Amino acid sequence: MWAPPVVDMDSSSAPAVLAKACRDFGFFYVENHGVSEEVMREVFRQSKLFFSLGMDDKMSVRADKNNRGYTPMHEQVLDLENQTKGDTKEGYYIFREGSAGAAADGEHDDARPLSGPNQWPSEELVPGWKTTMQEHFVRMHAVGERLAGLLSVGLGLDPAVFGTCFSEFAHTLRLLHYSAEVSDPGKGVMGAGAHTDWGLMTLLATDEVPGLQVRLNGKWLDIPPRKGAFICNLGDMLQRWTNDDLRSTVHRVVNKLGLERYSIPFFFEPNFDTEVACFPQFCSEENPARYPPVKAGAYLMGKYSQTHQDFDGYQPDSTASSTS
Questions:
Q1: pLDDT tens digit string along 159-177?
Q2: Closest C-alpha among 244, 251, 247 to residue 265
Q3: 317 falls within a domain
Q4: What does the alpha-carbon distance between residue 195 and residue 55 come to, in Å, rounded to a whole number?
Q5: The model's pTM
Q6: Count of domains forming the chain
């Protein structure tokens, strides 16, 4: 039975193990990441508390034009070619207050999509929710920075190659609740349709309910939960930076057991204006760059427009919406 590699972030061999896991699979577990199980239990508790609210309360913080807030069940369609209905999940998008270069107080900046304040549920309904999520966002930023540093060493790059790319905390914390509806991929019904992630990498925390699958060598393989570990996968931007040396692996969520499932992905993304172009070490005259340069923010906005029925904050051009 196949199992993803395990990267111990405290090990001296972490850079080499990480680089190999990225090249071979694009999916792996991350341990000794510095986020305690007690902290994760509280974040999951708060997430479940929000999703247990009535629909009117949830819809009062429905995602705005900057994609911050609640997204209802079936609103997202990740596999446009094969799904016959939206993902059987509801979610909640959280960005850093003032992210993507906006003012520190969270004011919206028309020149910077996705900027501005988050939407927060009522403190009376979910006490401590805002503080819990803000603290977790910063905590996960630190994990992502550390992991990116280890990866740069493992790939033989300048250890500081990603150093200036994440200063704006332009990441996304997303809370997800999957319904108990059993998936039927043959009929286009899935918890989350087959897709690649879009940024540098994703750090996923999940409960004990299985459902995540990755496509490797033409087969769908289960990625079981691992206690105390994050599940990490690579995104499209890393594939572009490394000219396909590292791949953004296709994955999906399939509900086989008829149980509800909760997960919390943290999408570790470069600054909005970061240019994603092939690193010189990964291209040559014999192996030219396979993708044109693209601004990270434009690429992400194009993906939001493609997959979210309610998102109309951006009209992508052909470069931003290209896939990998």
A1: 888 878 888 888 999 999 9
A2: 251
A3: no
A4: 28
A5: 0.90
A6: 1
